[in-house]
Amino acid sequence: xxxxxxAPSPTGxxxxxxxxxxxxxxxxxxSTGGQVLLRIDDTDAGRNTExxxxxxxxxxxxxxxxxxxxxxxSKRRSSHVQAARALLASGAAYRDFTPxxxxxxxxxxxxxxxxxxxxxxxxxxxxxxxxxxGEPFVARFRVPRDRPGGATFKDLVYRKQFRRxxxxxxxxxxxxxxxxxxxxxxxxxxxxLGITHVIRGQDHLxxxxxxxxxxxxxxxxxxxxxxxxxxxxxxxxxxxKRRHGALVSVTNxxxxxxxxxxxxxxxxxxxxxxxxxxxxxxxPQLVEAFRIQQVLRTNAVVQFGxxxxxxxxxxxxVWLTGQHLRRMPIGQLMPYCEHVLRDAGWWLDELAGxxxxxxxxxxxxxRSRLNLLSELTTxxxxxxxxxxxxxxxxxxxxxxxxxxxxxxxxxxxLDASKEFxxxxxxxxxxxxxxxxxxxxxLLINGSRAALTGQTVGPSAFxxxxxxxxxxxVKRLSAV
RNA sequence: GGCGCUAUCGUCUAAGGGUUAGGACAGGGCCCUCUCAAGGCUCAGAUCGGGGUUCGAAUCCCCGUAGCGCUACCA
Length: 479
Prior knowledge:
Blueprint: E1 3-6, H1 16-31, E2 35-40, H2 50-63, E3 69-72, H3 77-90, E4 93-96, H4 105-108, H5 124-132, E5 138-141, E6 150-155, E7 159-164, E8 172-174, H6 182-192, E9 197-201, H7 207-218, E10 224-228, E11 231-232, H8 241-244, H9 250-256, H10 260-268, H11 283-289, E12 300-301, H12 315-327, H13 330-344, H14 356-366, H15 381-384, H16 392-399, H17 403-416, H18 422-436, H19 440-452, H20 460-467, H21 469-478
Helix pairs in contact: 1-11, 3-6, 6-7, 10-12, 16-19, 17-18, 17-19, 17-21, 18-19, 18-20, 19-20
This protein binds one RNA strand of 75 nucleotides through strand 5, strand 7, helix 6, strand 12 and helix 12.
Protein backbone atom coordinates (compact mmCIF):
# COMPACT_ATOMS: atom_id res chain seq x y z
CA UNK A 1 0.00 0.00 0.00
CA UNK A 2 1.24 3.47 -0.84
CA UNK A 3 2.23 5.69 2.03
CA UNK A 4 2.91 9.38 1.52
CA UNK A 5 3.87 11.99 4.04
CA UNK A 6 3.62 15.71 4.48
CA ALA A 7 6.43 16.93 6.71
CA PRO A 8 6.19 20.59 7.69
CA SER A 9 8.53 22.06 10.24
CA PRO A 10 6.82 24.20 12.87
CA THR A 11 9.01 27.23 12.34
CA GLY A 12 6.26 29.36 10.81
CA UNK A 13 2.60 29.20 9.88
CA UNK A 14 1.31 26.88 7.19
CA UNK A 15 1.44 28.76 3.91
CA UNK A 16 -0.20 28.18 0.56
CA UNK A 17 2.80 26.35 -0.83
CA UNK A 18 2.76 23.87 2.01
CA UNK A 19 -0.96 23.42 1.65
CA UNK A 20 -0.56 22.74 -2.08
CA UNK A 21 2.06 20.10 -1.30
CA UNK A 22 -0.32 18.54 1.20
CA UNK A 23 -3.19 18.57 -1.28
CA UNK A 24 -1.11 16.84 -3.94
CA UNK A 25 0.12 14.24 -1.46
CA UNK A 26 -3.41 13.65 -0.33
CA UNK A 27 -4.81 13.40 -3.83
CA UNK A 28 -2.08 11.01 -4.84
CA UNK A 29 -2.67 8.79 -1.81
CA UNK A 30 -6.42 8.77 -2.16
CA SER A 31 -6.34 8.17 -5.87
CA THR A 32 -4.20 5.08 -5.31
CA GLY A 33 -5.89 3.83 -2.18
CA GLY A 34 -2.89 4.82 -0.06
CA GLN A 35 -2.34 6.43 3.32
CA VAL A 36 -1.37 9.94 4.31
CA LEU A 37 1.03 10.62 7.17
CA LEU A 38 1.49 13.96 8.81
CA ARG A 39 4.97 14.20 10.21
CA ILE A 40 5.93 17.29 12.14
CA ASP A 41 9.61 17.83 11.39
CA ASP A 42 10.54 19.56 14.61
CA THR A 43 14.23 18.81 14.78
CA ASP A 44 15.27 22.44 14.96
CA ALA A 45 14.25 22.95 18.58
CA GLY A 46 15.50 26.51 18.66
CA ARG A 47 13.18 27.70 15.93
CA ASN A 48 10.05 25.69 16.69
CA THR A 49 7.08 27.49 18.13
CA GLU A 50 3.83 26.32 19.60
CA UNK A 51 2.04 28.92 17.52
CA UNK A 52 3.43 27.54 14.28
CA UNK A 53 2.34 24.06 15.20
CA UNK A 54 -1.15 25.31 15.89
CA UNK A 55 -1.25 27.19 12.59
CA UNK A 56 -0.22 24.06 10.71
CA UNK A 57 -2.74 21.83 12.44
CA UNK A 58 -5.55 24.39 12.18
CA UNK A 59 -4.83 25.06 8.52
CA UNK A 60 -4.65 21.38 7.65
CA UNK A 61 -7.80 20.52 9.54
CA UNK A 62 -9.63 23.34 7.83
CA UNK A 63 -8.77 21.91 4.41
CA UNK A 64 -10.89 18.92 5.40
CA UNK A 65 -8.59 16.35 3.85
CA UNK A 66 -7.95 14.02 6.79
CA UNK A 67 -4.66 12.23 7.36
CA UNK A 68 -4.25 8.71 8.66
CA UNK A 69 -1.25 8.93 10.97
CA UNK A 70 0.55 11.64 12.83
CA UNK A 71 4.17 11.64 13.98
CA UNK A 72 6.60 13.99 15.65
CA UNK A 73 10.13 13.78 14.40
CA SER A 74 11.54 14.91 17.73
CA LYS A 75 10.19 11.74 19.32
CA ARG A 76 12.20 9.63 16.92
CA ARG A 77 15.52 11.17 17.79
CA SER A 78 17.08 7.99 19.10
CA SER A 79 16.54 6.33 15.73
CA HIS A 80 18.34 9.18 14.01
CA VAL A 81 21.29 9.14 16.37
CA GLN A 82 21.54 5.40 16.15
CA ALA A 83 21.61 5.57 12.35
CA ALA A 84 24.38 8.16 12.51
CA ARG A 85 26.42 5.94 14.84
CA ALA A 86 26.02 3.00 12.49
CA LEU A 87 27.22 5.08 9.56
CA LEU A 88 30.16 6.35 11.54
CA ALA A 89 31.04 2.80 12.55
CA SER A 90 30.86 1.46 9.02
CA GLY A 91 32.90 4.31 7.63
CA ALA A 92 30.01 5.60 5.50
CA ALA A 93 30.29 8.73 7.61
CA TYR A 94 33.16 10.47 9.35
CA ARG A 95 33.79 13.02 12.06
CA ASP A 96 34.68 16.52 10.98
CA PHE A 97 36.41 18.49 13.73
CA THR A 98 36.64 21.71 11.76
CA PRO A 99 35.36 24.50 14.00
CA UNK A 100 32.03 25.94 12.93
CA UNK A 101 32.32 28.72 10.41
CA UNK A 102 35.82 27.82 9.26
CA UNK A 103 36.82 25.78 6.28
CA UNK A 104 34.75 27.52 3.64
CA UNK A 105 37.77 29.08 2.01
CA UNK A 106 37.17 27.51 -1.41
CA UNK A 107 33.71 28.93 -1.47
CA UNK A 108 34.99 32.38 -0.80
CA UNK A 109 37.30 31.92 -3.77
CA UNK A 110 34.34 31.03 -5.96
CA UNK A 111 34.97 27.29 -5.86
CA UNK A 112 32.22 24.97 -4.69
CA UNK A 113 32.66 23.66 -1.18
CA UNK A 114 32.61 19.87 -1.03
CA UNK A 115 34.27 18.90 2.26
CA UNK A 116 36.75 20.23 4.77
CA UNK A 117 40.37 19.30 4.10
CA UNK A 118 42.04 16.59 6.14
CA UNK A 119 38.90 15.29 7.79
CA UNK A 120 37.79 12.53 5.45
CA UNK A 121 41.06 10.67 5.87
CA UNK A 122 41.42 10.99 9.62
CA UNK A 123 42.28 7.56 11.01
CA UNK A 124 39.77 5.76 13.24
CA UNK A 125 42.11 5.85 16.18
CA UNK A 126 42.71 9.56 16.00
CA UNK A 127 39.08 10.32 15.31
CA UNK A 128 38.00 8.29 18.33
CA UNK A 129 40.67 9.85 20.52
CA UNK A 130 39.63 13.41 19.63
CA UNK A 131 35.96 12.60 20.07
CA UNK A 132 36.64 10.95 23.43
CA UNK A 133 38.60 13.98 24.56
CA GLY A 134 35.46 15.99 24.08
CA GLU A 135 36.42 17.87 20.92
CA PRO A 136 33.22 18.89 19.12
CA PHE A 137 32.59 17.49 15.66
CA VAL A 138 29.92 17.21 13.04
CA ALA A 139 29.20 13.84 11.49
CA ARG A 140 29.38 14.01 7.69
CA PHE A 141 28.32 11.57 5.07
CA ARG A 142 31.27 10.28 3.07
CA VAL A 143 30.10 10.86 -0.49
CA PRO A 144 31.81 8.34 -2.78
CA ARG A 145 33.34 11.11 -4.86
CA ASP A 146 36.10 8.90 -6.28
CA ARG A 147 33.54 6.59 -7.76
CA PRO A 148 32.91 7.35 -11.41
CA GLY A 149 29.45 8.32 -12.57
CA GLY A 150 26.81 9.64 -10.26
CA ALA A 151 23.49 9.13 -8.56
CA THR A 152 20.35 8.82 -10.62
CA PHE A 153 16.66 8.60 -9.95
CA LYS A 154 13.53 8.93 -11.96
CA ASP A 155 11.42 11.74 -10.61
CA LEU A 156 7.67 11.29 -11.01
CA VAL A 157 7.45 14.87 -12.25
CA TYR A 158 10.90 15.96 -13.41
CA ARG A 159 11.76 12.62 -15.01
CA LYS A 160 15.31 11.31 -15.18
CA GLN A 161 17.72 13.03 -12.82
CA PHE A 162 21.45 12.63 -12.67
CA ARG A 163 24.18 14.15 -10.56
CA ARG A 164 27.88 13.32 -10.50
CA UNK A 165 29.13 11.99 -7.19
CA UNK A 166 31.92 14.50 -7.47
CA UNK A 167 29.41 17.37 -7.38
CA UNK A 168 27.74 16.28 -4.15
CA UNK A 169 29.17 17.77 -0.98
CA UNK A 170 29.75 15.81 2.21
CA UNK A 171 26.57 16.93 3.94
CA UNK A 172 26.16 16.92 7.70
CA UNK A 173 24.30 14.18 9.55
CA UNK A 174 24.81 15.32 13.13
CA UNK A 175 25.50 18.83 14.30
CA UNK A 176 28.26 19.49 16.79
CA UNK A 177 25.67 19.60 19.57
CA UNK A 178 24.63 16.07 18.66
CA UNK A 179 21.32 16.98 17.01
CA UNK A 180 20.43 15.18 13.82
CA UNK A 181 20.11 17.33 10.72
CA UNK A 182 17.12 17.46 8.44
CA UNK A 183 18.74 15.19 5.86
CA UNK A 184 19.41 12.45 8.38
CA UNK A 185 16.15 12.68 10.30
CA UNK A 186 14.01 12.92 7.22
CA UNK A 187 15.68 10.02 5.46
CA UNK A 188 15.64 7.72 8.47
CA UNK A 189 12.00 8.52 9.12
CA UNK A 190 10.98 7.99 5.51
CA UNK A 191 12.69 4.63 5.69
CA UNK A 192 11.36 3.51 9.03
CA LEU A 193 7.84 4.79 8.50
CA GLY A 194 7.61 2.89 5.24
CA ILE A 195 7.09 5.89 3.00
CA THR A 196 6.66 4.73 -0.58
CA HIS A 197 6.32 8.10 -2.28
CA VAL A 198 8.05 11.30 -1.30
CA ILE A 199 6.12 14.19 -2.82
CA ARG A 200 7.53 17.56 -1.89
CA GLY A 201 8.62 20.93 -3.23
CA GLN A 202 11.10 21.27 -6.05
CA ASP A 203 13.49 23.01 -3.69
CA HIS A 204 14.43 19.49 -2.58
CA LEU A 205 15.16 18.19 -6.04
CA UNK A 206 18.94 18.40 -5.68
CA UNK A 207 18.82 17.25 -2.05
CA UNK A 208 17.32 14.02 -3.27
CA UNK A 209 20.70 12.75 -4.43
CA UNK A 210 21.95 12.99 -0.86
CA UNK A 211 18.89 11.22 0.42
CA UNK A 212 19.34 8.43 -2.08
CA UNK A 213 22.93 7.93 -0.96
CA UNK A 214 21.84 7.89 2.66
CA UNK A 215 18.96 5.52 2.07
CA UNK A 216 21.30 3.14 0.34
CA UNK A 217 23.92 3.32 3.09
CA UNK A 218 21.25 2.63 5.69
CA UNK A 219 19.82 -0.28 3.77
CA UNK A 220 16.35 1.13 3.18
CA UNK A 221 14.30 0.59 0.06
CA UNK A 222 14.24 3.68 -2.03
CA UNK A 223 10.83 5.37 -2.21
CA UNK A 224 9.65 7.02 -5.40
CA UNK A 225 10.22 10.77 -5.55
CA UNK A 226 7.99 13.40 -7.05
CA UNK A 227 8.90 17.05 -6.88
CA UNK A 228 6.38 19.80 -7.28
CA UNK A 229 7.01 23.12 -9.01
CA UNK A 230 7.25 25.99 -6.58
CA UNK A 231 4.65 28.63 -5.83
CA UNK A 232 5.89 32.14 -6.40
CA UNK A 233 4.60 35.43 -5.13
CA UNK A 234 3.57 38.22 -7.54
CA UNK A 235 7.16 39.48 -7.17
CA UNK A 236 8.44 36.23 -8.66
CA UNK A 237 10.17 34.95 -5.56
CA UNK A 238 9.50 31.65 -3.83
CA UNK A 239 6.61 31.98 -1.39
CA UNK A 240 7.92 32.41 2.09
CA LYS A 241 6.65 33.37 5.47
CA ARG A 242 9.37 35.87 5.85
CA ARG A 243 8.92 37.62 2.55
CA HIS A 244 5.19 37.42 2.06
CA GLY A 245 3.94 37.48 5.60
CA ALA A 246 0.64 36.34 7.03
CA LEU A 247 -0.97 37.09 3.68
CA VAL A 248 -0.06 33.61 2.44
CA SER A 249 -1.08 31.85 5.62
CA VAL A 250 -3.75 29.22 5.10
CA THR A 251 -5.62 30.32 8.20
CA ASN A 252 -5.76 33.77 6.68
CA UNK A 253 -7.71 32.38 3.73
CA UNK A 254 -10.00 30.60 6.16
CA UNK A 255 -10.57 33.85 8.01
CA UNK A 256 -11.24 35.76 4.79
CA UNK A 257 -14.20 33.46 4.17
CA UNK A 258 -12.94 30.94 1.66
CA UNK A 259 -14.63 27.58 1.47
CA UNK A 260 -12.22 24.68 2.01
CA UNK A 261 -13.36 22.90 -1.12
CA UNK A 262 -12.98 26.07 -3.17
CA UNK A 263 -9.53 26.67 -1.80
CA UNK A 264 -8.48 23.07 -2.38
CA UNK A 265 -9.86 23.30 -5.89
CA UNK A 266 -7.77 26.41 -6.48
CA UNK A 267 -4.60 24.86 -5.06
CA UNK A 268 -5.08 21.73 -7.13
CA UNK A 269 -4.97 23.84 -10.28
CA UNK A 270 -1.57 25.28 -9.48
CA UNK A 271 0.84 23.13 -11.42
CA UNK A 272 -1.70 20.58 -12.50
CA UNK A 273 -4.88 20.44 -14.54
CA UNK A 274 -7.24 17.65 -15.58
CA UNK A 275 -6.43 18.45 -19.24
CA UNK A 276 -10.05 18.64 -20.27
CA UNK A 277 -10.71 22.31 -19.61
CA UNK A 278 -12.69 21.51 -16.51
CA UNK A 279 -11.73 23.80 -13.65
CA UNK A 280 -14.58 23.57 -11.20
CA UNK A 281 -14.03 20.27 -9.44
CA UNK A 282 -15.27 18.67 -6.26
CA UNK A 283 -12.78 16.79 -4.12
CA PRO A 284 -13.95 13.34 -5.31
CA GLN A 285 -13.55 14.52 -8.90
CA LEU A 286 -10.05 15.72 -8.11
CA VAL A 287 -9.18 12.33 -6.66
CA GLU A 288 -10.56 10.70 -9.77
CA ALA A 289 -8.67 12.93 -12.20
CA PHE A 290 -5.38 13.46 -10.41
CA ARG A 291 -2.26 12.04 -12.04
CA ILE A 292 1.09 12.86 -10.52
CA GLN A 293 2.82 12.27 -13.84
CA GLN A 294 0.97 15.15 -15.42
CA VAL A 295 2.06 17.70 -12.86
CA LEU A 296 3.87 20.56 -14.60
CA ARG A 297 7.48 21.53 -14.09
CA THR A 298 7.01 25.26 -14.19
CA ASN A 299 6.60 27.43 -11.12
CA ALA A 300 3.24 29.12 -10.67
CA VAL A 301 2.54 32.63 -9.48
CA VAL A 302 -0.02 33.10 -6.74
CA GLN A 303 -1.73 36.42 -7.03
CA PHE A 304 -2.17 38.59 -3.96
CA GLY A 305 -1.69 42.19 -2.97
CA UNK A 306 -0.54 43.73 0.23
CA UNK A 307 -3.76 45.31 1.37
CA UNK A 308 -6.40 43.38 3.31
CA UNK A 309 -9.64 42.19 1.74
CA UNK A 310 -10.88 39.81 -0.89
CA UNK A 311 -9.73 41.98 -3.77
CA UNK A 312 -6.20 41.25 -2.65
CA UNK A 313 -6.42 37.50 -3.14
CA UNK A 314 -6.06 35.65 -6.37
CA UNK A 315 -9.39 36.46 -8.08
CA UNK A 316 -9.60 32.96 -9.41
CA UNK A 317 -9.50 31.55 -5.89
CA VAL A 318 -12.33 33.88 -4.95
CA TRP A 319 -14.30 32.92 -8.03
CA LEU A 320 -13.89 29.22 -7.35
CA THR A 321 -15.15 29.59 -3.80
CA GLY A 322 -18.12 31.53 -5.16
CA GLN A 323 -18.87 28.75 -7.62
CA HIS A 324 -18.75 26.07 -4.95
CA LEU A 325 -20.78 28.24 -2.64
CA ARG A 326 -23.70 28.50 -5.03
CA ARG A 327 -23.57 24.92 -6.29
CA MET A 328 -23.02 22.85 -3.17
CA PRO A 329 -25.99 21.29 -1.41
CA ILE A 330 -27.44 23.92 0.91
CA GLY A 331 -27.25 21.52 3.83
CA GLN A 332 -23.49 21.32 3.47
CA LEU A 333 -23.18 25.07 3.26
CA MET A 334 -25.17 25.89 6.41
CA PRO A 335 -22.56 24.81 8.99
CA TYR A 336 -20.08 27.24 7.46
CA CYS A 337 -22.64 30.02 7.59
CA GLU A 338 -23.38 29.23 11.20
CA HIS A 339 -19.68 29.58 11.99
CA VAL A 340 -19.49 32.93 10.30
CA LEU A 341 -22.43 34.25 12.28
CA ARG A 342 -21.01 32.87 15.50
CA ASP A 343 -17.67 34.50 14.84
CA ALA A 344 -19.44 37.79 14.23
CA GLY A 345 -21.37 37.41 17.47
CA TRP A 346 -24.64 37.39 15.53
CA TRP A 347 -25.65 33.85 16.26
CA LEU A 348 -29.04 33.15 17.80
CA ASP A 349 -29.98 29.71 19.01
CA GLU A 350 -33.34 29.95 17.29
CA LEU A 351 -31.51 29.90 13.96
CA ALA A 352 -30.86 26.27 14.71
CA GLY A 353 -34.40 25.73 15.94
CA UNK A 354 -37.58 27.60 15.14
CA UNK A 355 -36.03 29.88 12.56
CA UNK A 356 -33.88 27.23 10.91
CA UNK A 357 -36.08 27.11 7.76
CA UNK A 358 -35.88 30.88 7.53
CA UNK A 359 -32.10 30.81 7.91
CA UNK A 360 -31.77 28.27 5.11
CA UNK A 361 -34.12 30.27 2.89
CA UNK A 362 -32.20 33.46 3.48
CA UNK A 363 -28.80 31.92 2.73
CA UNK A 364 -30.16 30.21 -0.33
CA UNK A 365 -31.56 33.47 -1.67
CA UNK A 366 -28.39 35.35 -0.97
CA ARG A 367 -25.73 32.91 -2.04
CA SER A 368 -25.78 33.49 -5.78
CA ARG A 369 -24.29 36.89 -5.20
CA LEU A 370 -21.68 35.88 -2.67
CA ASN A 371 -18.14 34.81 -3.36
CA LEU A 372 -16.83 34.54 0.17
CA LEU A 373 -18.60 33.43 3.31
CA SER A 374 -17.52 36.57 5.10
CA GLU A 375 -19.81 38.63 2.87
CA LEU A 376 -22.67 37.23 4.90
CA THR A 377 -21.76 39.63 7.67
CA THR A 378 -20.70 42.54 5.50
CA UNK A 379 -22.92 42.93 2.47
CA UNK A 380 -25.76 40.94 3.97
CA UNK A 381 -25.95 42.64 7.32
CA UNK A 382 -29.50 43.94 6.88
CA UNK A 383 -30.88 40.43 6.58
CA UNK A 384 -29.55 39.35 9.94
CA UNK A 385 -29.44 42.57 11.92
CA UNK A 386 -31.66 45.60 12.36
CA UNK A 387 -28.78 48.00 12.87
CA UNK A 388 -27.78 48.43 9.26
CA UNK A 389 -26.60 51.63 7.64
CA UNK A 390 -27.59 53.35 4.41
CA UNK A 391 -25.30 53.68 1.41
CA UNK A 392 -25.26 57.02 -0.33
CA UNK A 393 -26.89 55.63 -3.45
CA UNK A 394 -29.61 53.99 -1.39
CA UNK A 395 -30.26 57.30 0.32
CA UNK A 396 -30.63 58.90 -3.10
CA UNK A 397 -33.31 56.40 -4.04
CA UNK A 398 -35.22 57.38 -0.94
CA UNK A 399 -34.86 61.10 -1.64
CA UNK A 400 -36.61 60.79 -5.00
CA UNK A 401 -39.86 62.73 -4.96
CA UNK A 402 -42.72 61.06 -3.16
CA UNK A 403 -40.87 57.85 -2.45
CA UNK A 404 -40.86 58.15 1.32
CA UNK A 405 -44.53 58.90 1.50
CA UNK A 406 -45.40 56.04 -0.82
CA UNK A 407 -43.27 53.64 1.20
CA UNK A 408 -45.19 54.66 4.32
CA UNK A 409 -48.46 53.95 2.52
CA UNK A 410 -47.05 50.65 1.35
CA UNK A 411 -46.14 49.78 4.91
CA UNK A 412 -49.71 50.38 6.05
CA UNK A 413 -51.18 48.33 3.24
CA LEU A 414 -48.83 45.42 3.79
CA ASP A 415 -49.56 45.56 7.47
CA ALA A 416 -53.26 45.41 6.79
CA SER A 417 -53.05 42.59 4.28
CA LYS A 418 -53.37 38.99 5.48
CA GLU A 419 -51.22 37.65 2.73
CA PHE A 420 -47.48 38.26 2.60
CA UNK A 421 -45.78 36.52 -0.30
CA UNK A 422 -43.53 37.63 -3.14
CA UNK A 423 -46.61 37.70 -5.30
CA UNK A 424 -48.79 39.69 -2.92
CA UNK A 425 -46.04 42.20 -2.25
CA UNK A 426 -45.50 42.66 -5.96
CA UNK A 427 -49.23 43.27 -6.41
CA UNK A 428 -49.33 45.89 -3.68
CA UNK A 429 -46.32 47.68 -5.11
CA UNK A 430 -47.51 47.62 -8.70
CA UNK A 431 -51.00 48.79 -7.86
CA UNK A 432 -49.71 51.59 -5.67
CA UNK A 433 -47.38 52.69 -8.46
CA UNK A 434 -50.26 52.60 -10.93
CA UNK A 435 -52.48 54.66 -8.63
CA UNK A 436 -49.81 57.32 -8.31
CA UNK A 437 -48.86 57.19 -11.96
CA UNK A 438 -45.20 56.42 -11.25
CA UNK A 439 -42.99 53.65 -12.57
CA UNK A 440 -42.98 50.54 -10.43
CA UNK A 441 -39.20 50.61 -10.47
CA LEU A 442 -39.25 53.73 -8.34
CA LEU A 443 -41.01 51.88 -5.54
CA ILE A 444 -39.18 48.65 -6.11
CA ASN A 445 -35.78 50.25 -5.80
CA GLY A 446 -36.97 52.48 -3.00
CA SER A 447 -38.12 49.44 -1.08
CA ARG A 448 -34.80 47.70 -1.45
CA ALA A 449 -33.06 50.84 -0.28
CA ALA A 450 -35.33 51.20 2.74
CA LEU A 451 -35.23 47.55 3.67
CA THR A 452 -31.51 46.90 3.25
CA GLY A 453 -29.80 50.28 2.98
CA GLN A 454 -28.40 49.08 -0.33
CA THR A 455 -29.19 49.41 -4.01
CA VAL A 456 -28.09 45.88 -4.76
CA GLY A 457 -29.32 42.50 -3.69
CA PRO A 458 -31.86 39.83 -4.52
CA SER A 459 -35.14 40.55 -6.26
CA ALA A 460 -36.87 43.23 -4.25
CA PHE A 461 -39.95 41.08 -3.68
CA UNK A 462 -37.68 38.34 -2.46
CA UNK A 463 -36.05 40.82 -0.11
CA UNK A 464 -39.46 41.45 1.46
CA UNK A 465 -40.10 37.81 2.20
CA UNK A 466 -36.60 37.20 3.52
CA UNK A 467 -36.85 40.08 5.92
CA UNK A 468 -40.38 39.23 6.92
CA UNK A 469 -43.58 41.19 7.27
CA UNK A 470 -43.14 42.71 10.68
CA UNK A 471 -39.63 43.96 10.05
CA UNK A 472 -40.58 45.25 6.60
CA VAL A 473 -43.48 47.29 7.93
CA LYS A 474 -41.24 48.73 10.59
CA ARG A 475 -38.42 49.57 8.24
CA LEU A 476 -40.64 51.12 5.58
CA SER A 477 -42.42 53.25 8.14
CA ALA A 478 -39.16 54.40 9.62
CA VAL A 479 -37.66 55.96 6.52
C1' G B 1 31.00 31.50 -8.83
C1' G B 2 29.45 26.00 -9.29
C1' C B 3 25.43 22.38 -10.13
C1' G B 4 20.47 21.85 -11.63
C1' C B 5 15.33 23.01 -13.12
C1' U B 6 12.10 25.96 -16.11
C1' A B 7 10.25 29.28 -20.16
C1' U B 8 2.51 29.62 -24.22
C1' C B 9 -2.31 35.63 -23.25
C1' G B 10 -1.59 40.15 -17.10
C1' U B 11 -2.46 35.28 -14.02
C1' C B 12 -3.70 29.75 -13.88
C1' U B 13 -3.43 26.47 -17.91
C1' A B 14 -4.61 23.19 -23.00
C1' A B 15 -2.29 21.65 -27.44
C1' G B 16 3.84 17.18 -26.98
C1' G B 17 5.62 17.49 -35.08
C1' G B 18 0.24 19.63 -39.14
C1' U B 19 -5.34 23.50 -34.87
C1' U B 20 -7.82 30.20 -37.11
C1' A B 21 -2.52 28.15 -30.65
C1' G B 22 -8.12 26.15 -27.01
C1' G B 23 -10.23 27.07 -21.97
C1' A B 24 -10.62 29.66 -17.14
C1' C B 25 -9.89 34.12 -14.00
C1' A B 26 -9.34 39.28 -14.45
C1' G B 27 -10.75 43.46 -18.33
C1' G B 28 -14.26 45.55 -22.55
C1' G B 29 -19.14 45.00 -24.93
C1' C B 30 -24.10 42.83 -25.69
C1' C B 31 -28.42 39.92 -23.98
C1' C B 32 -31.46 38.88 -19.71
C1' U B 33 -33.52 42.37 -15.92
C1' C B 34 -36.80 46.03 -10.50
C1' U B 35 -30.97 46.65 -8.76
C1' C B 36 -26.70 43.64 -8.09
C1' A B 37 -25.12 39.03 -8.92
C1' A B 38 -25.76 34.47 -11.51
C1' G B 39 -26.40 32.73 -16.48
C1' G B 40 -25.83 33.18 -22.02
C1' C B 41 -23.23 35.46 -26.17
C1' U B 42 -19.05 38.28 -27.63
C1' C B 43 -14.26 41.39 -28.09
C1' A B 44 -9.22 42.06 -26.84
C1' G B 45 -4.99 39.40 -25.26
C1' A B 46 0.50 34.62 -25.67
C1' U B 47 4.33 30.48 -27.95
C1' C B 48 11.55 34.71 -24.46
C1' G B 49 15.53 35.65 -28.63
C1' G B 50 18.67 33.37 -32.36
C1' G B 51 20.17 29.25 -35.02
C1' G B 52 19.38 24.28 -36.66
C1' U B 53 16.51 19.26 -37.87
C1' U B 54 11.97 18.74 -40.94
C1' C B 55 7.73 19.24 -46.55
C1' G B 56 6.03 21.25 -41.82
C1' A B 57 8.35 23.32 -34.92
C1' A B 58 4.90 26.30 -29.40
C1' U B 59 6.27 21.07 -29.61
C1' C B 60 12.75 17.91 -31.17
C1' C B 61 18.28 19.68 -30.87
C1' C B 62 22.00 23.62 -29.94
C1' C B 63 23.40 28.56 -28.31
C1' G B 64 21.97 32.79 -25.84
C1' U B 65 18.85 35.38 -22.30
C1' A B 66 15.77 35.51 -18.10
C1' G B 67 13.56 33.46 -13.72
C1' C B 68 13.78 30.00 -9.91
C1' G B 69 16.06 26.27 -6.75
C1' C B 70 20.27 24.02 -4.42
C1' U B 71 25.21 25.11 -3.14
C1' A B 72 24.73 25.52 5.70
C1' C B 73 26.38 22.39 11.97
C1' C B 74 17.85 25.71 8.10
C1' A B 75 14.22 22.71 6.75
